[in-house]
Amino acid sequence: MEQDKAGGGQDAGAYRHADPITDEALTWFVTLLDAPVDPDARAAYQAWRNRDPRHAAAFDRLSSLGSMPELQQASTLAHFPQATPSPSAIRSATRRRSGRFGGWRASLAAAALLLAIGVHLQPTLALRLTADHRTAAGERREVALPDRSRLILDTDSAVALDFAEGRRHVRLLRGQAYFDVVSDPAHPFRVTAGFSEVEVTGTAFTVRADGGQDAVFLERGRVSVSRREAPGQTVSLVPGDRVTATVDGLSAPARPDPAEALAWKDGRCVFHDQPFAAVVDTLRRYHGAPIVLIGDRLAGARVSGNYRLDDPVAAIRSLADVVGARVTELPAGLILLR
Questions:
Q1: Rounded Cα–Cα distance for residues 22 and 16 (Å)
Q2: ∠ CA(158), CA(264), CA(113), 5° rounding?
Q3: What is the pLDDT of residues 314-335, one digit of tens each?
Q4: How much is the average pLDDT of 238-250?
Q5: What is the CATH number of the domain that holds 223?
Q6: How many domains does the chain contain in total?
Q7: CA dist 109 to 66, 101, 226, Å?
Q8: What Rg value do the Cα atoms of the chain yield, rounded?
Q9: Are 109 and 289 in contact (CB under 8 A)?
Q10: Domain check: are 186 and 253 in the same one?
């Protein structure tokens, strides 16, 4: 294992809240959990809080959600820096933290809840109205298509079908799917995702729509991958090729290990020398509740492994031991890694 040195140790896969101020507030939230009365931490927090009234508002929202006495105390100290906690207050706070449902657990739960709201809420109502087939977290489903082609839908995925009047068109609305297409030269089979369109007559391939990019991997046959937006780039793939499509265009074909690219079909997650944050991002799709990686300390650690996807929590625990992450499991399955 080694730390990724590119970008000062940060990784694009690390958790970021959409609002940068809330992201900073969450960092202070967790820092003060670890050292609620540390003078240096308190001084740095106070300086950050006083720089912008939005900082104080964001932190207070987190603090009020958690109802943690130590964090409320830190907020008070920011307004009245001459105040210092009394020994009896510290002892009282320590006793409260030691309880099963003490302040620190409530605060962690509040932080996880905020993250879940900011990261994991999806437009599920619109998806339910649009999708013909959907899978829940941890579920895989095989679907027989009207033309006798076969579709395997990965976890937390959705597709919409159009097979009317000779058309063979699948829209990947979310997630990942494997297609085993029956040959019909007169009626090309098309798959569209966020940034790309794949056209074939008969072949087997996967498409994954993952937020900022689509990834197409060809197992056998030939496919043509095009950009949905102008300028209309097109790349032809041969078996073993993978291409990604983003808002900036199509990548050159890469040659990943097929065992890794198709492992999910067999219920496995296989990876070699990947950033810890990227692997967590994959595993959280198979877990019914959020898995949140806080901060950048561990995001770029390189890991390898082969894990069952029907037990993502066991995989997370094992990988956390490798990289030295602290695992906190919260009610309703929420997991914090830091």
A1: 9
A2: 60
A3: 999 999 999 999 998 887 788 9
A4: 95
A5: 2.60.120.1440
A6: 2
A7: 7, 10, 44
A8: 24
A9: no
A10: yes
